[in-house]
Amino acid sequence: MQPDAYCFHRSFDPAPAADFQVDRHYLLHALEGTIRLEADGRRWTLPPARAALIAADQPIRITILTRLTSASVLFARGFMAAPAATLSVFDMTPLARALIAECQSWGPETTLSPYAHQVFSLLGEVVLRLAQRPSPCVIPAPASSSLARAVDLTEAAAAEAPRFASIAKAAGLSERSLSRRLHDELGMTWTELLRRIRMTRAVELLATTDRPVTEIGLTVGYDSPSAFNAAFRDVMGCNPTEYRRSCRTNSSHQNPPSPRPKVVEGVAGG
User: Do 68 and 120 fall within a single domain?
Assistant: First the structure.
C-alpha cells in the first residue's frame, strides 16, 4: 500500500501530445527541459523554476517538448485539500523547492514518519497557496484547426518579425477571419498572442540560462532592451532581471534521483 504522499525524480525523452490522468493530486516540477500542459481550453509551457498542480482524476494533455527531468510529488485525495482548478501552473519559491528536496527520501514504497508527514503536509499547503496565483504566461487553446495552425506558425516565427498577413495566408484564412477567430476563441488580438508567446520563451531562457537579459530580448524578437523590458513587465509584473533573480535558487542539479516508482504510468513513473 502506498503512503499518503510520496516523491520521485524521473527523466523522459521528448514525446508527442498524450492524455494524462492520475488518481492523486499531482505536483510536477520541471528540473530540466520543457513540457507543455493543456487543460480546460488553456495551455502552459512548463520550464524549470515553474511547477504544475494537477487535480486528482482530472484529465489533461501533456507534450514533452525537450528531454525532461522532473521532481514530482503525489498526494492522496484525503491528504490535502483539492486544488481549485484542474491544472494550475505557477512559479516556484525557495520554500517550495526546499520542501520538495526534503521530500525526495520518501518514495512510493516507503512509510511516512511523523516528520515526513509534516513535511508533505506543509508542501501541500504551500503549493495550494501558490496555485492561487497562476502564471500569466498562458495561451488559450484554439478550438479550430485553422487557428491552431496560425498559433503554431506564430510560435515558429515569433523570434523574427512575423507578418500578420503572412500568418493568415499560411493558415488558409483571410486576415479578417483570423482576427475574428483570435477574438472568439482566444479572447486576444494577434499582437497580444505574439507578445505572450515571446514572454513564455523569455521566461524559459531567464530561468534556465545565464545569457544576458539584452541577448534574451533580441532572441525572442525585441530589437531594443526598453521594448523587451516594457513587454515583460506588462505580462509578468516585474522586469526580466527581477524575474531571473527569483529563479536563481533553483537547485536543479543538487538532488540525486529517488528510486523509480513502479505503479504509476506515464509522467507519474513506471
Answer: yes
Regarding pTM above 0.90, the answer is no
* Bridge pairing between strands 50-54 and 87-91: antiparallel
**How are strands ordered across the β-sheet holding 5-12?**
5-12, 68-75, 25-32, 50-54, 87-91
What is the distance between the alpha carbons of residues 151 and 120, in angstroms, rounded to a whole number? Answer: 39
Question: Which cell is 83 given?
Answer: 486544488
73 Cβ neighbours under 8 A, 6+ residues apart: 5, 6, 7, 26, 27, 29, 100, 103, 120, 123
- The pLDDT tens digits of the residues spanning 117-168 come to 999 999 999 999 999 988 888 888 888 999 999 999 999 999 999 999 999 9
Strand pairing of 138-140 and 42-46?
antiparallel
Does 97 reside within a domain? yes
